[in-house]
Amino acid sequence: MKNYLLTPGPTPVPPEALDAMARPIIHHRTPQFQAILKEVEEGLQSVFQTKGKVLILTSSGTGAMEGAVSSLLSPGDKAICVSGGKFGERWGELCAAYGIEFIPIDVEWGKAVDPEKIKEILQADGIRNMDNGRRIKAVYVTLCETSTGVATDIKAIAEITKNHEAVLVVDAISALGAVPLRTDEWGIDVVVSGSQKGLMIPPGLAFISLSDKALKLADSSKLPKYYFDFKAYKKSIDKNDTPYTPAVNLIIGLNEALKIIKKDGIDNVIKRHQKHAAAVRAAMKALGLELLAPDAYSDAVTAVKSPEGVDSAKLVKTMRDTHGVAMAGGQAQLKGKIFRIATMGYITADDLKKGMETLETVLAELGYKFEKGAGVKALEKGLAS
Amino acid sequence: MKNYLLTPGPTPVPPEALDAMARPIIHHRTPQFQAILKEVEEGLQSVFQTKGKVLILTSSGTGAMEGAVSSLLSPGDKAICVSGGKFGERWGELCAAYGIEFIPIDVEWGKAVDPEKIKEILQADGIRNMDNGRRIKAVYVTLCETSTGVATDIKAIAEITKNHEAVLVVDAISALGAVPLRTDEWGIDVVVSGSQKGLMIPPGLAFISLSDKALKLADSSKLPKYYFDFKAYKKSIDKNDTPYTPAVNLIIGLNEALKIIKKDGIDNVIKRHQKHAAAVRAAMKALGLELLAPDAYSDAVTAVKSPEGVDSAKLVKTMRDTHGVAMAGGQAQLKGKIFRIATMGYITADDLKKGMETLETVLAELGYKFEKGAGVKALEKGLAS
Fold first, then answer.
1. Which top CATH class is B15-263?
2. Does B9 touch chain A (CB under 8 A)?
3. HEC states along B114-171?
4. Which of B66, B85, B236, B313 could be joined to B147 by an S-S link, Cβ 3.0–4.6 Å?
5. For residues B148 and B293, is the Cβ–Cβ distance under 8 A?
6. Contact predicate B244/B56, CB 8 Å
7. Longest dimension (CA), chain B
8. Is there a contact between B300 and B273 (Cβ–Cβ < 8 Å)?
């Protein structure tokens, strides 16, 4: 049975990258690898849309998120953590792990944060500061919340943090290369991402871009850290090197994936994601299904409410085990209640068609009533537009 | 030009593992991947020679070393850090990063630690404890110090730590699968390793085994951590899962590499390393070259003093750039003074022959006088024995 991966990470890997990763391995402290690292760095800067260096870590995205706490802050610093899903919650968990007092902004799962809330807290912080000398040094947000398919208005938030000493840290793990993200233009201080989403290679690498404001914060950071110490990675990448043995073959694969993005052009890649996700949303509407986030959807992954009487866990399991089509179910409080269709990275229009046919088949098997073929038709119309 | 990798990590990757890593990627939260993880876990337990679970991290070996500090210790705990090279030094750096007071045992580079020194400090600690209540909770050592080619007598050290409340933590990154290491039998509490040495796959994965004594310490550990929190990995691996998205294709490649080790048998694999390393040492003697560690050599990597008047950095660079043979030079204080020939993992007898021929060629070019062919002859004799 052929497998179709429509999950929000890992996403399918293009054959060019698979081939490159299967080449005999080379040593990382060689001019040969340094040349690859230089190309990868330039490719990442172009996707991150930054002139600053992008640090390359061997870890999952969570490792880079941890570094964005431990490598930036110091004991006594405060932070704002915006959470509207499983991955937003992680910012608060990370701050708690390092004893950083944080002001939580908890958003209903399926909704996006109102940037004004962040503004109010930052303004109040300026006043409170006169009392205790402790300041908010970082605002942690999620661009695309993978667990709910919500996209956050990062541009508006960056407008606010620009005028405050706090850095804006954006989890763009499932957003990078899938939705608009103009790091330098919008003034985002820190962007965290991973390899297994829009960048189209297997999991195992994480990336961080840092503004000058963030680099300054990193210079004075006093929380304990070692492997995720951004200063060490910054010093190394300036010399096309890494502080510790990197995941050599993943980086070689990434170089091929970045070449594909470069050839297509990042703006066209984003437009393709927009078209694919809009087609998926149209298909859901045609099937009479409701989106979890109708007002704040992301083009990376679409979360759909399972219809009355259909357990989404069973739906997802049946599609995967009987038809080879892997979508994602709901996590935590959304378990059994939603399913998620990814449109990121190397997920093609044909993959989506196969996914939609299978979804219709299994929804019908599970007793959901709808006009057969309506979803596929709406999807195809959207893809052809 | 065909490249020969005789470096102490990354080491060559067998084609079975390369092929497996180039297969279309699968999702990690599936029965399909769980079955692979279960096989990998069993394979690792067999190589680690432990009945305990082996944790699988997506990071370089340094990440797992960090976890062996941050996930085991608490503020106020003390440690012993044995250092006789670049990687031994890392234990002290890690303790310092987390504010852990440590007693350094600095060994001359090229020598192994005398276990009696550890015994003396641990005994004195028991007496001092009555005064201040602070105790040595961990002894950090390196089995094969990659920078010097020294092997440490871990069995003897484990005999000492067994009778003390401190756990013995062994960096076996370049030792695992290359030299004898009987985790349970010898009573080693924590063994740290990585993927790109004896385990024959690319860098990007790290492994940790934990004894019951170490698990207990992890339970009460209060240093800040998140991504390297061993408790989360222990909880997950018990369910054939990982707490964060793992490096899926590296794990799939590892499964193939572990199958090769299983087929050969771990004892035969170790014997092959012993034979290869002994042949390399015999070849060096035949060439009139001196070992850096004649009294404490490791079978994973052999460090050789560059002859008078020959810069080892130039020797290594010429072999690599002109002949495609990659050996390692010296690091830190040994830069330019030694070269290192790895015998670990998938480095074959033929690779070693090619390496020795090239070494003779370039040594002659650089003006060193020796009996031409003597090194190759001694190597071949050793390999045939």
1. alpha beta
2. yes
3. CHHHHHHHHHHHHHHHHHHCCCEEEEEEECEECCCCEECCHHHHHHHHCCCCCEEEEE
4. B85
5. yes
6. no
7. 65
8. yes
Measure the CA–CA gap between A106 and A94, rounded to whole angstroms: 16
Rounded-to-integer distance, Cα B143 and Cα B157, Å: 11
CB atoms within 10 A of CB B367: 10
Q: Give residues 216 to 235 of B whose Cβ lies within 8 Å of A.
A: 223-229
ipTM: 0.96
Q: Which two tokens stand for residue A74?
A: 């110091």
Using the beta-carbon criterion (under 8 Å), do A203 and B248 form an inter-chain contact?
yes
Per DSSP, the three-state class of A116 is: helix
This prediction's pTM: 0.97
Start-to-end C-alpha separation, chain B: 31
Cβ contacts of A99 on chain B, cutoff 8 Å: 224
- B130 CB burial (10 A radius; 0-12, 13-18, 19+): exposed
Q: Does B141 touch chain A (CB under 8 A)?
A: no
CA-to-CA separations, B26 to A324, A359, B251, B385, in angstroms, rounded: 11, 19, 11, 45
Asked if A123 and A101 count as a contact pair (C-beta separation under 8 A), the reply is no
Interface test with A, best of B2, B7, B25, B62 (most A CBs within 10 A): B25
Residue (of B315, B313, B320, B316) closest to B1 by Cα position: B320
Tokens of B250: 């590296």
Name residue A304's beta-bridge partners. A291, A339
Among B227, B250, B317, pick the best mutation site for testing chain A contact (most A Cβ within 10 A): B227
CATH superfamily, domain A4-9+265-384, is Aspartate Aminotransferase, domain 1 (3.90.1150.10)
Tokens of A300: 């990376």
Residue B45, number of CB atoms within 10 A of its CB: 17
How does pLDDT run along chain A (385 residues), one tens digit per residue?
899 999 999 999 999 999 999 999 999 999 999 999 999 999 999 999 999 999 999 999 999 999 999 999 999 999 999 999 999 999 999 999 999 999 999 999 999 999 999 999 999 887 665 555 668 999 999 999 999 999 999 999 999 999 899 999 999 999 999 999 999 999 999 999 999 999 999 999 999 999 999 999 999 999 999 999 999 999 999 999 999 999 999 999 999 999 999 999 999 999 999 999 999 999 999 999 999 999 999 999 999 999 999 999 999 999 999 999 999 999 999 999 999 999 999 999 999 999 999 999 999 999 999 999 999 999 999 999 8
Determine the angle formed by the axes of helices B266-286 and B349-365, rounding to 10 degrees. Answer: 20
- Domain(s) labelled CATH 3.40.640.10 in chain B stretch across 15-263
Domain with CATH 3.90.1150.10 in chain B: 4-9+265-384
